[in-house]
Structures are given as structure tokens and as C-alpha cells.
Amino acid sequence: MRFARIACGLLLALIGLLVTIAGAVAAFWLVGPDNTIDTGEQSLASKGLAVMTAPDLIDRHGPKLHLTASSGKPVFVGVGQDIDVSSYLGAAQYTRVVRFDLPARFDSQEMTGRAVPLTAPGQLDWWTVKATGTGKQSITWPIVDGRYDVVVMNADGSPGVDAKVTFGIELKGAFGTCLLVLGGGLVLLFAGLLLMFARRRNRPLPPVPVMSPVQTTAPLMPYSPPAPKQSTQVRRSAGLATALLLVTTGCVAVPTRNVNHQVTTKPAVTLADGQAVVKKYNEVNNQANLTRDAKLSETIEGNPTLAQTRAGYQIDRKIDAAGKDKTKPFTYTDPEIGAPQFSAYPMRFVVASGISTDPQSRQLGVWERQDAGSPWLLTHSVYPTSAMKLPPMAGLRMPVKADMAKLPVLPQTAGTNLAAYLSGGAKAKQAALFVPSPGTVNLLTKRAKAKVDDAKETYISTVVDTFQLSGQPLTFIAANGEALVFLTLTEQYRQNIEPGSNAYWTNGAVTAFSSMVKYTQSLHQDYLHQVALTIPPTGKPRILSIDGQLVGAGGN
Fold first, then answer.
1. Strand-pair category, 42-46 with 137-142
2. How far apart are CA 84 and CA 69, in angstroms?
3. Residues whose CB falls within 8 Å of the CB of residue 529, separated by 6 or more in sequence, listed in order
4. How high is the pLDDT of residue 205?
């Protein structure tokens, strides 16, 4: 029995020693009181524009990621969804980290491409978390379920990244667990030593009875505790120690494997980001209007809105060269954001807002971003009256085939019919297909009067007004099932000249495009119209607004 006790004690002591060492190393070298396992400072470099993790590398969520980077020049560190990061880097040259083993092993591959500087990453709004500047830059990110990339770049988006980086994973309760493992190891160690070196204590012998000479004396045997009792105590100690280790190591939950790792869609913007885009537009647009700076407008607008703005500035400079009649500053107020889900760029979102200088109207606009490195641009913008009922912005989404099948008329067909309706006037047969807006009625009334007045001129033989659909309609599906459609229409108002006569533009907005040039066949004015309409599941399409801008004039 003594040999078994020593052997069992030696085994427990060895196990306890190993567990103690492991717990001490984990607690005071690998983890530390901050519950964070980190790599120590490592060098990461790339000839390209970034060092980023592969989207499949972060496949679990729950812990916190700590990242600190420093470089000889301003550095950027950030975490973004893969759909954004991949679009941003695009065909650029960069280094991808494809394997990462704690504490300090990185495997990477070089991704070939262009080394042209990108938009400074700190200027982009889609990062989940970011830090940029000189010196050490640090971020902390509670890792969430999904496809995310960690990125290190030069702050100005230039190639040639050379940074000192420290990665850390914070596991809640890790330090306490390591201390418990350390304590469990000490318990095993001392239990083993106790079994090995504890002396056996003999029970006192009972008094020897006095025997008569005729009695025979049986040989006396020393007392020892029953063997089964000692074996049970050893097994119990080992069992308790094992249970203690299992319980303590279970104090830190294993990070949960991602279930949304293959989800590749995201809203175009968050509510806060959408509102920030509108706020920036307000600021830059007022500055551009004040200086009539089309180049500045290019940073916040895209066609067709930009084309209308450029034409408006050109007209203003012609008829108000002194700059006495500039647009008064205004803002879009209380924006309501409709942000559909997208799986790739370009992305778009819709905004319905008030207008600070015109309480009788609202603004309904589409902002678009071509890729993750581009700014948000206002591409479509119309101004329905405040009394006009707009579709709800919450739940706005892009259409699928089933949505289009439910509509009584397709957006393309509605656009073609609308162009025919406007060309033919209020009496056109296509007029019965629409519910017109007040602005539509006013436009048709104005054009009908202009035709009558122009035909009275002796040098004008006939007048023709032609609208055409330009490009593809942009369609969204609202939560109430309506299709919200944005269209672009071109219009040419043409005055045919009597044979033997000539005509030319002498005053007004048209002189910004053609002034004092004589024509013998025709004069024309060119307009660009933006239209928004809704197509309900049943009933006629309803025109929300039609807003035009003179963009050219000339003749033949």
C-alpha cells in the first residue's frame, strides 16, 4: 500500500506542477490582468496600399479585438465590412493576412494591382471603428457576427505601408480563470506531496489482558486502517481536483462561430450616416451657390442634378453678372432616410426632407455612391408640395422580379407613356393613365400658352414640343408595396422659322447658350426634367413632382 500511495502522490504532484506552471505562464505572461492575449509588437509591411485580413480570418465573435499601430508617418487602422473594404481597395495592390495564430504568427499573400493612392481612409464614413493620425493609433472592437476586415494603411492612402502592429484578443474572465487553474495546480501539487511524504500515524494498542498460566497467548498484530478507505480518499481528491479544473477552465466561453459569415448585404447607410451626408450637402451646396462654383458642386452632386446645377450657374452668370441675385442659403431639414440593402456597389439611399426657406415644398432625393472610395452624390432631386403624400422611407428596398410582376405597369413603360403625355399635352390619350401633380398641370398650361403666343409671330411657322425618356428609371419598393420611381426626361421646344426669314435669341436665359446668332430654319430650347412618381399595386401611377431646368438653346 505504501508503494501505491507514493506512486499516486508522485503522479498528482507531477500533474499539479505542470498545471501550476501552465496557469502561471498563462496568467502572468500570456494573458495578464487585462484579460488580453496579444502578439507583442510585430512588423507588418506592404509595397501596396494596405495590409488587411482576409474576410474568412475572423470567423468567430464575442471577444474584443485590440489593435495598436504606429509608423514613421501618419497611420490609419480600422475595421470595416468586407463589402466596403473590398470595393475600396478594388484593383489596388495590397497585402492580405490569410493566417493568424497567437501569439505571433502571420501568414500573408501579396495581391497584385495598381499602386495609385486612394481616398484617405479616414474621410470615409463606412468604417465600423477607425483611428488615424500620427504616433500610435489604437482601436477596440467587440467582434460581431459577419464578414469584417481589419485594415492598416497610411493615413493619406498612399502606397508603401510599414507599421509596427500589436494585435490583442480580450477574453472576459481569462485572467481569473488562469489564476483558478494556477490554484488548482497548487492543490494537486500539495495533495501529491502530502500523499508521498505524510507519515502513517499508528493507533495506540489496547491494554494487554492478564492471562492465567493455562491460557495460550495469540500473537498480536499491529493495527492499520482498512486499505479501501485510503484508496477512496485518493480517488476523491483526484476527482475533486479534476472537477475543479474542468469548472475553472469553463469560466471563459469559447468564442461563438459566425453564422452570418456568408451574408454579403448591408444597408446603404445607417440613419446617422445618412443624416451626416445631408448635413454636409447643405454646407457645401450653399457655398457653391454663393460662388456659382460648379467644380465644388461636383463634390456633392452627380447627374442629372449636377447637369441642372451647371446650367443654372451658367445662366446666372449671364443674366446676373454683378452677382446681385444669388440664391439665398437654405438647408434640407428633418431628413427621413430610406436605405435599401445592397450586396455590391453602387449603393443608393433616398431622403425625404423639408426645405428651410419653403415650408410649402419638400425635397425628395436620391444619393448614390459608385464605390466605397467615392463620396455620396445627390443624383436625383425633385420638389413635391408639402400636401403631396410620399411613400414611407422606412423599409425602402430595391425591387426583385416578383415585385415588378405585381405592378400594373412597368417603370420603363410608365416613363415612355409620361413622355408621350407631356408631348401631347393635357388632351393626349396617355393623360388618362396618370394622376398628375400640380406642377405637371402648371407645366402643360405654360407650354400650351407659349405655343399659341409663339405661333402668332410672323417669322414662326409651327411650334413642336417633344419630351423623351432619358436613361433607365431608378426604382425602389416602399413598405406599402408602392414602387417609387425616379425618371429623367429631355425636352426640346422647337420653333420652325418661315422660309425666307431668320431669327435669333436676344434676351433672357437662352442667351447663356446662344446669343445674337442668326438661324434660318429653327430655334430650339432644351430642358432637362427630373420626375418622381409612384406606381401602386393597383390603380394609376401618381406623379409626385416634375422639375425642369433649361440646359441649352440654339438653332439651325
1. unpaired
2. 21
3. 467, 488, 489, 490, 491, 546, 547, 548, 549
4. 53
Main-chain phi, psi angles of 113, to 5 degrees: 165, -165
Task: Say which residue the cell 430654319 belongs to.
Answer: 521
pLDDT at 25: 65
Q: How far apart are the first and last CA of the chain?
A: 120
Q: How far apart are CA 15 and CA 11, in angstroms?
A: 6
Residue numbers of the chain with a pLDDT score lower than 70 = 1, 5, 23, 25-36, 101-105, 171-176, 189, 198-254, 263
pLDDT digits (tens, 9 = 90+) for 500-534: 899 989 889 999 999 889 999 999 999 999 999 99
CA torsion, points 429, 430, 432, 435, in degrees to nearest 10?
-150
Backbone angles phi, psi at 106, to 5 degrees: -125, 130
Give the tens place of pLDDT for each residue, 105-142.
Answer: 678 889 999 999 999 999 999 999 999 999 999 999 99
Chain CA centroid to CA 308, Å: 30
CA distance 61 to 100: 15
Instruction: In whole angstroms, give the CA distance from residue 466 to residue 525.
Output: 11
Helix or strand run (H / E) with residue 333: strand 332-338
Q: Which amino acid is at 554?
A: G
Angstrom distance (rounded) from CA 348 to CA 398: 9
**pLDDT at 213 (0 to 100):** 47
- Which residue's entry shows cell 433616398? 350
Give the separation between CA 386 and CA 1, rounded to whole angstroms: 97
Q: Read off the amino acid at residue 256.
A: T
Residue 52, by phi and psi: left (phi above 0), alpha (psi -120 to 50) or beta? beta
